Amino acid sequence: MGEGIVFDEVSKFYGEVLGVNRVSLHIPPGITSMVGPNGSGKTTLMNLMTGLIHPDRGSISVCGLSPRNPESLMRILGYATQYDAAPRGATGFDFVSAGLLLYGYSAEETRRRAWQALERVSLTEAAGRKVAGYSKGMRQRVRLAQAIAHDPEVLVLDEPLNGLDPLVRAETIAMFREFAARGRHVILSSHVLQEVDVISDQVILIANGMIIAEGQIRNVRDEIEEHPSQFMIRCRDASRLASLLFDMEHVAEVKLHEDRQGMLVLTRNRREFSLALTRLASSGSPVESVMAADENVDALYEYLIGGGR
Q1: Which CATH superfamily is domain 5-222 in?
Q2: All structural domains of the chain with their residue ranges
Q3: Comparing 29-38, 72-81, 238-247, 289-298, which segment has the lowest mean pLDDT?
Q4: Which is nearest to 81 in space by CA: 6, 162, 151?
Q5: What Å distances lie between residue 204 and 34, 150, 256, 277, CA to CA?
Q6: Which of the listed ranges 37-41, 237-241, 305-309 does the model predict with the highest average pLDDT?
Q7: Nearest alpha-carbon partner for 47 in 79, 23, 75, 10
Q8: Confidence class for position 155, pLDDT limits 50, 70, 90
Q9: Residue 308 confidence (pLDDT)
Q10: In angstroms, what CA-CA distances link 189 with 215, 228, 284?
Q11: Which of the two ends of the chain, N or C, has the fewest CB atoms closer than 10 A to its terminal CB?
Q12: What is the mean pLDDT of residues 109-137?
């Protein structure tokens, strides 16, 4: 059990409000997505496994370590929350370096690791600028840089792809896969099934503080594979991108917006669509944003809990 992350009958209450209820999990190495709507318990589970809060009942083990032993745990764990944590006036380099200094690295080693982490998230050019002036996507990346700078065995990431443009998104996913290929844990939260479908080895579905389903993503995905998915795309050259997408076998329909700056796409295969869009973005197509129009996690819950019965 020392090689995994284990929750044993864990419950957490906030006064009389339930956070999570009798959660039992064994999370193996690889990329695991915790999926659920806001308020479902995803962040509570992450805060429990990182030791920021402690359970009222049950026990937790992270690769053989207890979250109640933060000094040992944080040496093997990196955590990037959704929330800005940089001190006022701190540059990107300052922010990443501050995290490393907590581990007792020398000034030279701190500098080396900070630059290496910033390079991995493509932020070296902005390293000397104040984090307060960063865009949403840049702030997301600098939090990720701080989380990976000490080369942890376990990465815990709360909505790590929010605000990233398609190219940076593809690079970030590739980094997660590289971590997982080395036998490490990458645990992330999301409320977008398209992200989970492309990224994950396994998925944990959460609602109302309870685990609805867990397992390999293909098994959960097969439950909802039959009906087309809709995606909203914003881009500058919508007509050209629409023609490229429409030629793809898995695309059922493309509708251009009236302003010609975006489109609605219906696809029969979410994975193929995501991979195709990543390829197009990498080859220069100016994709600005992609949003699932109907395949949010609530639809899956309705299927699994309601119509799936």
Answers
A1: P-loop containing nucleotide triphosphate hydrolases (3.40.50.300)
A2: 5-222, 228-293
A3: 289-298
A4: 162
A5: 5, 27, 35, 26
A6: 237-241
A7: 79
A8: very high
A9: 38
A10: 15, 24, 29
A11: C
A12: 93
Tell me the two tokens of residue 70. 């933060």
CB-based contact 42:192 (threshold 8 Å):
no
Tell the residue number behind the tokens 């080859």, with chain if given.
283
Query: Which of 130, 128, 188, 129 is closest to 164 using CA atoms?
Result: 188
For residue 180, the model assigns a pLDDT of 94
Residue with tokens 């029969």: 268
How far is residue 238's CA from residue 2's CA, in Å, rounded to a whole number?
Answer: 50
Q: 70: closest CA among 102, 25, 108?
A: 102
- DSSP-assigned beta bridge partners for residue 165: none
Among residues 70, 115, 56, 109, which one has the least CA distance to residue 91? 115
Q: How far apart are CA 217 and CA 211, in angstroms?
A: 15
pLDDT (tens digit per residue) in 65-92? 999 998 899 899 999 988 777 777 899 9
The answer to whether residues 26 and 6 touch, using CB atoms and an 8 Å cutoff, is yes
CATH class, range 228-293: alpha beta
How does the average pLDDT of the chain come out, rounded? 84
CA torsion angle 101 91 144 132 (round to 10): 130
Whether residue 306 contacts residue 205, with contact meaning beta carbons closer than 8 Å, is answered with: no
Q: In what order do the strands lie in the sheet with 287-292?
A: 251-256, 262-267, 229-235, 287-292
**CB-based contact 278:285 (threshold 8 Å):** no
